[in-house]
Fold this protein.
Amino acid sequence: MITGQNRGKKPAGDAQPNGKRMVVGPGLMMNQLLAAQLEAFTGEPWGTADQLFHVPPVLESSADQGCRRLVLWDGQGKTGEQLSAAIQGCASLEISRDRLALFNLSRGTGVEQVCLWRGVSGFFYAEDDLEQLKQGVQAMLDGKVWITPEMLAERVASPPAEDAGMPPPWNMLISRREQEVLGLLVKGNTNQEISEQLSISPHTVKTHVYKLFKKINVSNRLEAVIWHTSLMSMMG
């Protein structure tokens, strides 16, 4: 549970933003204020940019741990297609390694369904307060996704299509074997059961699951089910 207190890292302002933590959107002063709030909360430097394609590349460091990059992007007034196109065209974002969340959204627009399978990890709405935003940021820094209970119920209630292959770009990112493992995992199979059905060792299954979770930015089976069912609903 988030308390809103500083997480105990180095004081805000001791380092310059390096592209790892960014607030993106046209409201420069508001975004600078939000970045300062998040910097005080996380103890890490946050930068701002007016457009997604202006987000700088991450300055790699062997000391980097946890979430490689977290970008909060103002989605107000944008359609799902506009958001999806911008994500696809942003060369500095790596969908298999970075976390991207939308904020300042209006409910009922349907952008979530379009953006989930593009790798978006969180959704915040215009009426959400700072404490809710902090909770979501903490969750994503811990490697989780941040979606509303309503979205969760909708995704779980919509069963995935049988024997459906992954659409681009996932068919290039996720191997055929990983797709098979994911399909069995979504149906509730344990690692041992997947091992028996695919005639591979449990250790190999565990390796596939680990690589798969890294690629689709999830940290557990439930999140993998949510991701998969959302993707399949987009194809239907």
In short: Residues 1-15, 155-163 have pLDDT under 50 and may be disordered. The chain is about 45% helix and 10% strand.
